[in-house]
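For the sake of transparency, this paper describes our internal protein records without simplification. Because each token names a local backbone shape, the row as a whole describes the fold. One such record is reproduced below, unchanged from the form in which we store it:
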Amino acid sequence: MSLSQCGLVGGNTGGPECDPSKDRPVGLTFGGGTFDAGDYVDGPTFAVEFVSKTKLATGDSEKLFPFPELQGNTDQTEAPKTGSLGYGLKFVLLGAKPAYEFDVVAGSTTEQKLFALDGATVPVYVHGSTGKTWGTRSRTTDIFKGFKVLVSIVGKGFDDAQNVKSTKVTLSFVSSDEFYKTAAYITTDMTSSDLVGLMDGIAYEPIAHTVNAYKIGVKVLTAALGGDLNVYDSYADELVAGLVTAFTGAAFGTTLAITSFVKDTVNKCWTLTFDNTAYTALAANTKIKVFLGPTPADLDAADITGLEILPIIVSK
């Protein structure tokens, strides 16, 4: 027997039978949401946890943002850089860097929302055609998280009646090790209908307030001139007083009591009335932050689906 370190090189190379490989991508979900072992104990548990994080409020570090369903992809992985010695022995000088370009069919309004990620380096989960959600798992903490990627968006141009065109989303994977060496997946029954991006509801004052009574409307902006959607038309009865909260003071840390929140059928908005005593005690020009539903999950529970109403700041 000769002295050797060959037993320390590499490791066992076996794997289980029917070990699946990465399947065809059909969906992408971006964001910092992570999952520990209890969250992915099985597919149904993970699906509930995953979908719940798509309904967190914007700004929450765990919030996830689903993209529209993918309609095609092109492998743009850079080939390894190699070099050779005089007799032909080849060395890999720099390993391959995975990258993919995806086709997304998106309307102009949706496409404009996608551009918020253009140029960003963010985590992404990749949903496969066989129900697998792919990401990367830490071998020390067992935390499952999205691959870190650099995102590039190229918008769709005008149709020309000759070629099919789509919005292009390119993902460049920052870490080859994440993609190849620590990639992990879980199989669920989630579908594209479970992973739908939320629309931003923009709260505004259609009419100037009268003392402690404020008119609050909510609209969804679109690319169509004059085509913004009035949330009142769909959810006049669902948006109720119990969903509305208001705050004043330093960092908006003091609750301001609300006495009523009722429909205004004439102006297609709602009338929000603050407690008269508390309101009167406020100094002139005091800022008041109003939440018409703390999180998308709260709105969802009230049958106001697919929407996040962003808070509005009004002045006394």
